[in-house]
Design a protein that fits this description.
heterodimer; A: 4-stranded antiparallel β-sheet; 10 strands; B: mainly alpha; MetI-like fold; globular
Chain lengths: 283, 273
């Protein structure tokens, strides 16, 4: 542990003060969420604080059921908030909005629309003229490499291709912050790696702020500038780790010693929480 | 409607091989019965109330070419299509709304449970008393009857919209009207079509039933008159006409369904077409 602390100097704090003095893009303050499960109150999030700067790629890892997805859904405006505040660009988050684009694990494509129709949809909702709509949609479809499939329906595509379409749709929406809820969780290992590379490449050109929830440590280190490790329920920040790996990142980076250090460090942190979560379920 | 749909032949290949892979094998038994039936007719072995197929076709052709049949078909189909139109549109629209909005659902659901099991034919005399013996009362009965299956199908379709699909719509900033038009209705459409198919069959059943009770024109009327005059051949000809109309209407509906559900039927079931 002491060795990893040397390599990862800012990692040890429970909650890190914001690095810059300017206002962060996303500010989450003392966020609380409780569920009522069969009469007993379950605290999903307890006094959760987080600041995210513009252009940061932040991954959130944690044991399953720790409230990391719940947090993302609250930020998306889909779940109610029981306490605390969230603000994006100084504006309070109260309901769903196109400034926070979601990418779901389940692809969430409309099966009655073609690839092009799905990617164009957010533009249609925003009343963007037809010619411009097609232009923008074509651009993002080609960015994810699906130009030949643009007139296909989602049911004709594989899982990896579907998630590419969903990514293109998200980029066409052009939100201030991208919220990704285990987007590659349903894919097989090879497809997941391909999609990770593609996301890294696309992100590198746009540098949009991303909040990426995952249970895959490798995915988190490979993609993120910063990793938030959640505690077991109730979800709090256990560690906030900066990943100082040069970009653009190739898959080979996973073989580097620095990468392995990060991996071991985060895995140790996570393991404690996974075991704690298991104890809680057992009791 | 899920990705997990499969048919028996995929799960049990032996069910397919047991009958060989020849197309049209299913038609063999009905064909044999038909031939036997015709032969019995030719040799005079049939009772009066069973008419040989060739005789039915001859009478049917005679009724068709004289223009008599067209008039009855027109009269029947006029009531049937209006009843279907009103019943199915009320059922589908209210069903979608009830599935989407809690208060509407809470109002209609117990009402449907109460009235659905009552055979609408049982209230036919009442309807005749209120709306007279003409077209109106028949259309009213059909409308009421067809409302229920289409309502229930649309209600469940609208209620079971994928949560992630709704969230995605809210995420891009879609308003309520767009949400209903572009998300709820398309995802409820497979269920709505199931309801429409039941409604369509029901409309034919009621078309004949109401005409049998009281009418001056229509296919049910032809059957009722034929019975009085012991013209069994005309009776069979009318039944044959109903069967052909029903078959064509059902096929047409399946074609329309295929057109509207093109993306949703892909790599899944393709209906029974």
């Amino acid at each position: 542990m002491s060795q990893s602390a040397r390599i990862v100097p800012i990692s040890s704090g429970i909650s890190r003060p914001p690095q810059t003095t300017s206002e962060p893009l996303l500010r989450v303050e003392s966020l609380t969420k409780t569920f009522d499960r069969k009469g007993t109150r379950v605290i999903a999030l307890d006094n959760f604080n987080l600041n995210v700067d513009d252009g940061e790629f932040v991954a959130i890892v944690g044991p399953s059921g720790c409230g990391k997805s719940t947090f993302l859904h609250m930020l998306g405006g889909f779940e109610s908030v029981d306490g605390g505040t969230m603000s994006l660009n100084g504006q309070k988050v109260t309901r769903p909005g196109p400034d926070r684009g979601m990418l779901f694990q389940e692809y969430a494509l409309y099966p009655w629309r073609t690839v092009l129709g799905n990617v164009m949809w957010p533009l249609e909702v925003q009343n963007i003229p037809q010619t411009e709509r097609t232009e923008i949609a074509d651009k993002f479809i080609s960015l994810v490499g699906l130009t030949h499939f643009k007139n296909h329906y989602p049911n004709e595509l594989s899982g990896g291709m579907k998630q590419r379409v969903a990514l293109a749709r998200l980029l066409a929406l052009n939100p201030k912050i991208l919220l990704m809820d285990e987007p590659f969780g349903a894919l097989d290992a090879q497809n997941r790696e391909l999609l990770q590379e593609e996301l890294e490449r696309i992100w590198d050109t746009s540098r949009k702020t991303v909040l990426f929830v995952t249970h895959d440590i490798d995915e988190a280190i490979y993609l993120a500038d910063r990793i938030i490790v959640f505690t077991a329920r109730p979800g709090r920040i256990k560690a906030d780790i900066r990943i100082d790996l040069a970009r653009p990142r190739a898959m080979e980076i996973k073989k580097s010693p620095a990468y392995t250090e990060y991996r071991n460090h985060i895995w140790d942190l996570l393991r404690e929480e996974v075991l704690r979560a298991r104890e809680e379920y057992a009791s | 409607m899920s990705d997990q749909t499969a048919n028996l032949e995929q799960v049990m290949p032996e069910a397919k091989t047991a009958f060989g892979d020849q197309r049209g094998i299913g038609i063999l038994v009905p064909l044999a019965i038909l031939v036997g039936w015709e032969l019995c007719g030719q040799f005079g072995l049939l009772p009066r109330y069973i008419v040989a197929p060739s005789k039915i076709i001859a009478t049917w052709w005679e009724m068709l070419s004289s223009g008599e049949l067209i008039g009855h078909v027109g009269s029947s189909m006029f009531r049937q299509s209006l009843g279907l139109l009103f019943g199915a549109s009320c059922g589908t629209i209210i069903g979608v709304l009830a599935g989407m909005f809690g208060p509407i659902g809470r109002f209609y659901e117990p009402l449907v449970s109460l009235i659905y099991p009552v055979p609408k034919v049982a209230i036919l005399p009442l309807i005749f008393a209120w709306f007279g013996l003409g077209d109106l009362s028949k259309i009213v009965v059909m409308t009421i009857s067809i409302f229920f299956p289409t309502y229930i199908a649309a209600y469940h379709g609208a209620k079971s919209v994928n949560k992630i699909h709704l969230w995605t719509a809210q995420n891009v900033g879609a308003g309520k009207a767009r949400l209903i038009r572009q998300v709820v209705i398309p995802s409820a459409l497979p269920d709505i079509f199931n309801g429409l198919r039941i409604g369509l069959a029901l409309s034919f059943v009621l078309m004949v039933t109401t005409e049998l009770v009281v009418s001056t024109k229509g296919l049910g009327y032809v059957i009722a008159r034929a019975e009085e005059n012991l013209r069994f051949d005309r009776m069979y000809a009318a039944i044959l006409t109903i069967a052909i109309l029903g078959f064509c209407a059902d096929r047409l509906l399946l074609k329309i369904r295929e057109y509207f559900l093109v993306g949703q039927l892909m790599s899944k079931d393709r209906g029974h077409g």
